[in-house]
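Below sits the subject:
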Amino acid sequence: METLKELKQYLSSPRDLAIVVHRNPDGDAIGSALGLFHVLRQMGHTIRLLAPSEYPPVLNWMPGVEAFIIYDLKDQEAKQALERSELVFALDFNALDRIDKMGEYLHHAGKKMVMIDHHLDPEPFADLQVSDPTASSTCEVLYVMLEQMGLESYINREVADCLYTGILTDTGSFSFSLSSRLFRIAGELLDRGVNNNRLQDLLFNQLPEKHLRILGYCLYKRLEVLPEYHTAIITLSKKDYEYFKIQRGDTEGIVNYLLRIEGVKLAAFIHEQPTITKLSLRSKGDISVKEMAQKYFKGGGHKNAAGGQSFIGLEATVKKFKAILPKYKDILTGREVVSSQEK
C-alpha cells in the first residue's frame, strides 16, 4: 500500500483497524485520532483506539474519548487489540519509540501501518507515510488527506469538533504555525458546525484551581531570566511535585508563559521526575530548539517547540543547559544564524 488511492480501495470493505497515538497524548493526537475514528466508523469499520498513557482530563468532553484503551492501565487488552487489527494508523508521531512497548510489538509483528503526522524527519516504519512538516498539526494533515481521498462528506459535526480541537491546541489558538490553507480549513470546519467559542472555553477556561496556584508558584519562585542570552528558565523539583501533588497535565503550557517576557527568545521548563529530568523547550524565530533537544538531551520535536530528557538530576541538567547557551549566543542576540555544522 503506497498511495492514498490504494488506501481508499483497501478501506472500501469493512476492516478491523487500530489507531495509535503517542505517549502523553495532547489535543492534536487525541483530536486527530478521534476525527479519524468517527470517519472510519461511518464507513463501517471496526476501530480500536490506543494510547500508551492517559490523556489530559481537559479532553474528557471529546466525543468517543472514553473508547481509548490505555496501555499503562490495560496492557493485555491493548496487545489483543493490536493483534486483531489488520491495519494500524499511527497518528501524531513518526518514530515507534514514541509509543513505547506498543512500538516494540508493532516492529516485530509485521502489521500494515499508515503514518499520519507533521513532525520533521519521520522514520520509515509505515507502509504508507502521510507526512507534512509544514502543517500546523496532524489534524490539518488529516483534513487534507480526507479531501484528497474524496472522503470529506464524512466530516460531520463530531469529526469537525475533533479536528478543530487539534488545530486550536497545536497552534496556541491560532498564534503560530499559521498558513492560508490552515485558515481555509478552519473556516470549513466552522461551516460544518464547530462553535469556536465553545471549544475555546472547553479547552482553555476549565483549569482547576491547583493549576493556577502551580503557575503562580513557578512564575514567582522558580523563574530565572538570563537577559544576556534572551532566555528564561523555570524549574520544578521532586519536592515541588510532592508539595503540590502535581499529576499528569498539571504543568501543561507553563513554558509558553516565558515567551511573553519582553526580550525572551528561548524558554525552558526543566522539571524533575522520580527517575528522569524532563525539558520542555520553546523558541521564537530561527532558533531551533528541536536541534538543541536532539543534540544535547536525547529529544526532538518541532523547530520552535521540542522536548528532551536527562538522567543526571535537576541541578546538573540546569547547569548543562546554561553551559550550552554560549554556543547559541549569536543567534539568540540576533547577530547571525548559527548552522549545525558550525556548532
Remarks:
- Residues 336-343 have pLDDT under 50 and may be disordered.
- The longest strand covers residues 266-272.
